[in-house]
Amino acid sequence: xxxxxxxxxxxxxxxLKGRLDTTNYGELEKKILELLEKKENNIIIDCEKLDYIxxxxxxxxxxxxxKFKANKGKFVLCNLQENIKEIFEISxxxxxxxxxxxxxxxxxx
Amino acid sequence: xxxxxVDDEPDMELLIRQKFRKKIKSGxxxxxxxxxxxxxxxxLIEHPDIGIILTDINMPExxxxxxxxxxxxxKNPTLRTVIVSAYxxxxxxRTAMNRGAFDFATKPIDFEDLEITIKKTIEQVxxxxxxxxxxxxxxxxxxxxxxxxxxxxxxxxxxxxxxPSRKDFEIYASMNSAKSVGGDFYDFFLINDEMLGFVxxxxxxxxxxxxxxxxxxRTIIRAAALTGLSPDECMKYSNDLLSRENISDMFVTxxxxxxxxxxxxxxxxxxxxNPPYILKKDGTxxxxxxxxxxxxxxxxxxxxKTKNITLKPGDTIYLxxxxxxxxxxxxxxxxxxxxxxxxxxxxxxxxxQEIINGIISSVEEFTKGAEQSDDITMLTLKYNGN
Lengths: 109, 386
Known about the structure:
The structure holds 2 protein chains of 2 kinds. Chain A is of the alpha/beta class. Chain A has a single domain, classed as Transcription Regulator spoIIAA (2-Layer Sandwich), CATH 3.30.750.24. Chain A contains 4 helices and 5 strands, in the order ββαβαβαβα. In chain A, β3, α2 and β4 form a beta-alpha-beta unit. In chain A, α1 packs parallel to α2. The relative contact order of chain A is 0.18. The model of chain A has no long low-confidence stretch (mean pLDDT 91). In chain B, α3 runs parallel beside α4 and α7 packs across α8. Chain B contains 11 helices and 15 strands. Chain B starts with a strand and ends with a strand.
């Protein structure tokens, strides 16, 4: 998995590329904790190039959501591929995350 | 560091106490003295924490070379011996080195040089002691893991057929964890004569943390289910308990169904688990509908829903965890739902055990040579009718 970070308005956008699973979820965890440390408030996870997410990956996103919400920040997702959408549907995660069709919509969140 | 000096010259003790008085006073060195090999062995038993032995070669009763042999027999891997002998005694010194002495110093003793030798030996002994401690810890952890695995396996029902007198249904299940302990589990139990409860679940992690979470989840769900709660009530009760205690954002996906053994009707809730398949007698395979319930353990006060499906005699419900469909081969391809469905169709006339064994072989064939990365757990329940 590759994580590309960029800034847009008050958001930090993390573009995830490849597979987020038990072998590499630690990298995303580290990145999210780092952004918390830097007092970033609003995060967009762009999943356009994310091909696969395992339950360990979901757990890290959940951690991010809880931590940013606790700081009254935003932690939103966008551009989910069909198979990722399905995983969010099955797991019920689609009901607890704010999910947007595009980065532009997410930025207006 | 406790050091033993073995020498038959009576001056030796005085000399050492004098030359190393600062180190002795500060507690850095502690000395034990013996006058020959035999006495040295006795002292070794009295002081098992001795790390370094400085020994002469020519002594009455037992000489230094024999002492070295005896020390080797003690098999203490963190004990080091330094030979202190006359310069002209090189042949014996070589023999001692070949018998495993760590270093040597010559007489008359140059105490500055001896101190360097002792310092170097202490470093070595400390490294060895640390390595020994680490290895003992590792051994203890392995031992604990082995016991954890036994406990984990023992809480899963493993006697098949579990209800030999029941001919109206057949059930089989298996769990293979990727690490020595896993986060998957299955369970089944008769709530009463006509209600068979069955569960499959997957904790969002692996190893020890997942195994602990698994044991807790399984116990809560079973306890709630056996009181006769409906699947949605059972999920709500378990979820509220698990969410309250959750500290590391772990969660568990759970499918819980109750089959009416008179009618074949199954009422179920699916909290974020892969939808089980129904393998019909005519060879068609259909996915059970989602109830769109959220995984257990992350949100208190969530409501859960139920759905119904009815098995006709000869139909089987097949439950699995994503370790099956996400088993990966060396080309990084997933086993996938497509392959699973195709394999299931091959088994329309098979028993629950044959279905699971068939899929295990098929997954093994597919992943040949690749390491298993996730727990693989399955449960099959076939309805025979009355």
